[in-house]
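Quiz preparation item.
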């Protein structure tokens, strides 16, 4: 194998390590993003619940106030019963009193129901607030993991970038451009080996995509240090003379 293809293989080795580290970091960044969105959704839904609870409490206070008004009116009607002069007046006040009492009982039941609902909402809210705290803790954890990965990978990444620069030194600008383009497309898997599945047959495949290659390509690679790409997947081809 010629010097150019040797250099490209070496460069690919470094490139794959860089890509792997970046992939791991990107996965952790995605975790942080996902957890941030999850926390935000939980916080928003908690806020909605808080608003609902506040609204329910206001409604309950209104109904409670109505109930107090009726209690006062019941006392007044009771007093009236003692002061009325005629049976007819007595019957009228009594009927009013009974109506007010019935209404008061109905409202009391309603206040009780509302109170129960408010208590249930408060309990749920407490539980959900705990859930939000957990999500928030989880976010802090994945953020810390990302930071830790970043700092632990940094030294390795710096070393790899230096190695990469060194490996690039002997290669021409156009070859490097090609290498970078393929690396982008195939996540660092720039090079593809030419394989010969049957030793006696003049049949060659690209190891990168398994497509058949012309015999001339294999022959050229065996005799010259040439940068040739697979017509199908675009990777740079290389061949082992021993097969
Ligand atoms: Zn290919």
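Solution:
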């Amino acid at each position: 194998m010629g010097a150019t293809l040797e250099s490209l293989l070496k460069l690919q080795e470094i490139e794959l390590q860089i890509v792997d580290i970046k992939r791991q970091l990107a996965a952790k960044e995605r975790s942080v993003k996902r957890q941030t969105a999850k926390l935000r959704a939980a916080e928003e839904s908690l806020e909605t619940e808080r608003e609902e609870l506040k609204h329910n409490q206001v409604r309950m206070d209104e109904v409670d106030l109505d109930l107090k008004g009726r209690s006062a009116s019941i006392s007044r009607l009771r007093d009236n019963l003692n002061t009325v002069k005629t049976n007819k007046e007595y019957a009228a006040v009594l009927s009013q009193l009974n109506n007010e009492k019935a209404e008061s009982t109905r409202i009391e039941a309603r206040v009780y129901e509302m109170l129960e609902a408010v208590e249930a909402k408060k309990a749920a809210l407490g539980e959900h607030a705990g859930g939000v705290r957990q999500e928030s803790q989880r976010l802090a954890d994945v953020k810390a993991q990302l930071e830790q990965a970043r700092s632990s990978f940094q030294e390795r990444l710096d070393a790899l970038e230096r190695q990469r620069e060194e490996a690039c030194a002997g290669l021409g600008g156009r070859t490097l451009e090609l290498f970078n383009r393929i690396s982008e497309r195939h996540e660092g898997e720039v090079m593809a080996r030419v394989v010969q599945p049957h030793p006696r047959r003049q049949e060659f495949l690209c190891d990168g995509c398994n497509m058949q290659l012309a015999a001339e390509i294999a022959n050229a690679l065996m005799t010259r240090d040439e940068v040739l790409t697979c017509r199908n997947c675009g990777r740079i081809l290389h061949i082992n003379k021993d097969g």
